[in-house]
UniProtKB/TrEMBL annotation:
Keywords: Methyltransferase, S-adenosyl-L-methionine, Transferase. Pfam families: Methyltransf_3 (PF01596). It comes from Aquirufa aurantiipilula. PROSITE patterns: SAM_OMT_I. This is O-methyltransferase. Transmembrane segments: none annotated. CDD domains: AdoMet_MTases. InterPro entries: Cation-dep_OMT, SAM-dependent_MTases_sf, SAM_O-MeTrfase. It comes from the Bacteria.
């Protein structure tokens, strides 16, 4: 995902509000202890997610793909005092590490962290959802979208990460299954009359979908 000029990225981060000490520590410990630390949302994307969440003041957020919890902590910043974020992941090996950081946060009581298969868990959620963040297995993005779109309130948001896939989505030579799945997913969302679309070239690409009124 290192296709944005590094100097521009550094400049952007320098002129973005700083992350909290807890998030800095989570970033550092993820890079030191966990495989594939590039999966972490990080400072710039994290501040974007926190800003969007604070603007819409959600009562319920659904996150599909927790990893080590950085994005969940950022999204939780915008919750109303009685709100919660349900964050779903299948990786049991990361649970202890991730939960330890949730426990250190004052927002921890508002984070409902579940080690489950999202495909099975999402249909069980009955409440109306204000904001969804999808950052999980790319080949199932279309399925996750189909499972959540009718649960999102009118005017609510679905944000999807990694939709540029290190720029591979525009490379004709890239024919692997994940790249093609993302191309198909981006087109699927563009064609869906229930949502308005903005593909933002932030980090590895964020697709912002607003549920139409």
């Amino acid at each position: 995902m290192e296709f944005i000029d590094s100097a521009i990225d550094a400049y952007s981060r320098a002129f973005t509000a700083p992350e909290s000490d807890l998030l800095k520590r989570l970033d550092r410990e993820t890079h030191a202890q966990i495989l594939q630390p590039r999966m972490l949302s990080g400072h710039l994307q994290g501040r974007f997610l926190a800003l969007i969440s604070s603007l819409i003041q959600p009562k319920l957020i659904l996150e599909i793909g927790t990893y080590t919890g950085y994005s969940a902590l950022c999204l939780a910043e915008g919750l109303v005092p009685t709100g919660k974020i349900i964050t779903l992941d299948v990786n049991e090996e990361l649970e202890r590490f991730t939960r330890s950081f949730f426990d250190q946060s004052p927002l921890g009581p508002q984070i409902d962290y579940r080690i489950v298969d999202a495909k099975e868990e999402i249909p069980l959620i009955q409440e109306e959802i204000d904001l969804v963040f999808i950052d999980a297995d790319k080949r199932n993005y279309a399925l996750y979208f189909d499972l959540v779109v009718d649960k999102v309130r009118k005017g609510g948001l679905i944000i999807v990460d990694n939709v540029l896939w290190s720029g591979k989505v525009v490379e004709e030579s890239a024919k692997d299954k994940s790249t093609q799945a993302l191309r198909d997913f981006n087109q699927k969302c563009l064609d869906d009359v229930r949502v308005e679309n903005l593909l933002l070239p932030l980090r590895d690409g964020l697709l912002i979908l607003k549920k139409k009124d």
